[in-house]
Amino acid sequence: MTDTQEKRFTAYDIDGKEPIVKYRKISKSFGDNEVLKEIDFDLYPGERVAIIGPSGSGKTTMARLLMTLETPTAGTIEVDGRHLWHKEVNGKLVPADEKHLHEVRGDIGMVFQHFNLFPHMTIMRNLTEAPVKVLGLPKKEAEERAKEMLEKVGMSEKAKDYPASLSGGQQQRVAIARALVMRPKVMLFDEPTSALDPETVGEVLNVIKDIAKQGDMSMMLITHEMSFAREVADRVCFFDEGKIQEQGPPSEIFTNPETERLREFLKGFNVNGNGESQ
Amino acid sequence: MTGGEGIPPALWNKATSDFPCTERKDVIPIDVYSRVLPLLLDGFVVTIQLVIFAGFLSFVMSFVGGLARLSRFAPVRWVAGFIIEFFRGTSLLVQLFWLYYALPLLGVTLPTGLVGIVALMLNYGSYGSEIVRSSILAIPKGQTEAAIALNMTPFQRMKSIILPQAFRIMLPSFGNLMIELMKGTALVALITIPDMTYYIKEARNTIGHDTQLFSMLLVAYFIIGIALTMLFRWLERKFSAGRV
Ligand SMILES: Nc1ncnc2c1ncn2[C@@H]1O[C@H](COP(=O)(O)OP(=O)(O)OP(=O)(O)O)[C@@H](O)[C@H]1O
Ligand SMILES: [Mg+2]
């Protein structure tokens, strides 16, 4: 895809870099409903890609395939040079088993629309459970890491509390910290603020902006917050009807959309010019 | 566990010889209580033992059965499903007699007490399997997905994320089940296990006064029932961490 495309499609410096994630001819159907149609998509190490598009265009499915929450109908995904959904056996690709998925998906982390914190654990335990059980860190080290991350998202005071006592925005900040303690190479955010009260959207977006500035982590941000996408992303991908209809640096996508579909879509957000969403 | 030898004869003889009577009407109500109470206490201990052992084994079977029904492997699901539906769909009474008479024919001879416990386990464990299964299914899919996103193995997901949450949902149902089991133990008297019901029925044949006898029995079962209810209330409180 990159070789054939003349136009610069990301504001990120990808010279000499290999993509960390490669989707190749990925299709996904639910019954007769073909949600993704032969998608090719690359994500570079450290690159931040915003995914926008109308409801039902397949954005969530795109992320869930990479998090191994959904199985592709056809096509392959590579993560850091390794096939995610397939194993190579005698030079042939065969479907991956749970053990293989476990080995490869450690590079990926995800933040969900509805947080999905573990309600029976304290905030601290939410953050240390996987580092101890999955990464095998000593409890003390896991707690150090957790404290550091809680500080980063401004939730240090709540370490001993249970998720139910937090606001939506606070829960989402904890969920972000929980994903970060695993130190993934790629982070997926699926509409992290669309289940939140308007007052708490800002605090979560700020946390994500901070992470985006500091980290060398790749990020895939599915969002309806256009000003946020414009500010944070190196590249914006516009999905519609299961395909990437248009992609490019935010400066071009928002000011100079090429396709009629994208122009129509952006009209709903009033983002022309300054990228402010209403 | 006491076997099927019935009432220890010495005890019964003592009780009857202390208050010799030929005519049933000779025993005035107050004597009924004092004469039968020692026997009832013996039966009480046996009933408690049945509740504890059968309760514990039902609990274990509930988890084995419930998890087997959700297994990734179809044959495991089928076998578990058949066993559970079989013991749920037939009466405890019939199962009890069937095990009592059929097992020896199959070359398995168990002490009578154990036959009672096994029957109770199979019957209530089958009900319990459905409690476990439905509680696990009641945990939102997002919990499993978050655990996958943290790269937990299927075993870790079940053990530290799903089961602790499902357990909370199970507790009230298990409380009910244990009370049902406690009441179900009354049936084992029919295969001559000397529980409370057994002694009361024996006393009834010997000295009559049904009203007094069954009042005592009712109160005795009620006491165990209350104790079970309190135990499960306490457990529910203990496992409610994190809820507001
Ligand atoms: N588990 C599923 N079973 C059946 N259909 C599904 C499933 N998940 C998604 N779909 C369908 O796939 C299509 C794309 O869904 P997806 O969630 O990827 O869209 P989206 O772009 O994230 O939309 P939104 O902006 O509303 O979140 C929709 O038509 C949806 O109904
Ligand atoms: Mg979505």
Automatic annotation (TrEMBL), chain A:
Pfam family, any one: ABC_tran
PROSITE patterns cross-referenced by the UniProt entry: ABC_TRANSPORTER_1 (PS00211), ABC_TRANSPORTER_2 (PS50893)
Localisation: Cell membrane
GO molecular function list: ABC-type amino acid transporter activity; ATP binding; ATP hydrolysis activity
Assigned GO CC terms: plasma membrane
Highest taxon, organism lineage: Bacteria
Membrane topology label: Peripheral membrane protein
InterPro entries in UniProt: AAA+_ATPase (IPR003593), ABC_ATPase_HisP-typ (IPR030679), ABC_transporter-like_ATP-bd (IPR003439), ABC_transporter-like_CS (IPR017871), Ectoine_EhuA (IPR014343), MetN_ABC_transporter-like (IPR050086), P-loop_NTPase (IPR027417)
Residue ranges of every copy of the ABC transporter domain listed in the record: 21-266
UniProt keyword annotations, A-Z: Amino-acid transport, ATP-binding, Cell membrane, Membrane, Nucleotide-binding, Transport
Recorded family membership: Belongs to the ABC transporter superfamily.
Listed PANTHER family: AMINO ACID IMPORT ATP-BINDING PROTEIN, GLUTAMATE_ASPARTATE IMPORT ATP-BINDING PROTEIN GLTL
Protein name: Amino acid ABC transporter ATP-binding protein (PAAT family)
TrEMBL record, chain B:
Transmembrane regions listed in the UniProt entry: 44-67, 79-99, 105-124, 166-193, 213-235
GO molecular function, one term: transmembrane transporter activity
Keyword DNA-binding recorded: no
SUPFAM superfamilies assigned to the protein according to its UniProt record, in alphabetical order: MetI-like
Topology with respect to the bilayer: Multi-pass membrane protein
Pfam families named among the record's database cross-references: BPD_transp_1 (PF00528)
Residue stretches making up the ABC transmembrane type-1 domain: 44-232
PROSITE patterns recorded: ABC_TM1
CDD domains named among the record's database cross-references: TM_PBP2 (cd06261)
UniProt keyword annotation of Transmembrane helix present: yes
One BP annotation, GO: amino acid transport
Subcellular location: Cell membrane
Primary localization: membrane
Any single GO CC term annotated in Swiss-Prot or TrEMBL for this entry: ATP-binding cassette (ABC) transporter complex
Keyword vocabulary terms for this entry: Amino-acid transport, Cell membrane, Membrane, Transmembrane, Transmembrane helix, Transport
NCBIfam families: ectoine_ehuC (TIGR03004), HEQRo_perm_3TM (TIGR01726)
UniProt similarity note: Belongs to the binding-protein-dependent transport system permease family.
Name the record gives this protein: Amino acid ABC transporter membrane protein 1 (PAAT family)
